[in-house]
Amino acid sequence: MRTLVIIPTYNERENIGPIVGRVRVSVPDADILIVDDDSPDGTGEIADALAATDAQIHVMHRAGKDGLGAAYRDGMRWALDVGFDRIVEMDADGSHRPEQLPSLLAALRDEDGGPGADVALGSRWVAGGDVVNWPAHRRLLSRGGSLYSRAALGIPARDVTGGYRAFTAEALRSIHFDDVESQGYCFQIDMLRRAYRAGLAVAEVPITFVEREHGASKMTGAIVAEAMLRVTGWGITGLPQRLRRHPAPVEVSGSAQRA
């Protein structure tokens, strides 16, 4: 099973080296694709230097800051073209702990198509999940966004907006991710909405989300507004589909995690 971890970057020079190192230790067999949006702080050059010393690190340079969704779409397209079997979304800032990646991957189907999920969500809001160093308003925004999306779209997952996820290659093909136009906060909602619409099996794996120590958050009011508008629109146009009952996501207990 070939695994690729996609890490989008924009001005993450202080974070990219440590996060890549932790991924390589946690999942030594995995490859890493850094998708850099022409970071003015030199993140792309640091990524190139990392790739020059490790054949399992790859770098994609994009012309400018075009949004998280576009970066993931380009990375996913490359992953499928190259032939990876499992594709992971991960932030560069350390908020997604690489040490929990083995648990996320373990929740996916194996290469023989045996029991397991098509999509594994790193979930902050299931038993065993947690958030560290977040102010109250960020917790409210995240939990409120998930609750509103669940209600509007009929999605049973508890963490709808989280960005730490693993997909099988077949799941990505089923989702038709190239058609996803959403960016930022809303990209994750759109991908999960499509996964349920495609009838995919979704598992929620508890994670501990840790607020970044270096750099600035990319969350903006425009990103939140896009999510609210799109989710509301999908909720209205998708009322017939909401009458169908989606299979509930499988929660993986915290005790089953590997450190």
From TrEMBL:
Domain Glycosyltransferase 2-like residues, every copy: 5-173
Keyword Nucleotide-binding tagged: no
Organism the protein comes from: Leifsonia williamsii
Family: Belongs to the glycosyltransferase 2 family.
InterPro entries, alphabetized: DPM1-like, Glyco_trans_2-like, Nucleotide-diphossugar_trans
Keyword hit for Aminoacyl-tRNA synthetase: no
Name under which the protein is recorded: Polyprenol monophosphomannose synthase
Pfam families found in the cross-reference section: Glycos_transf_2
Keywords: Glycosyltransferase, Transferase
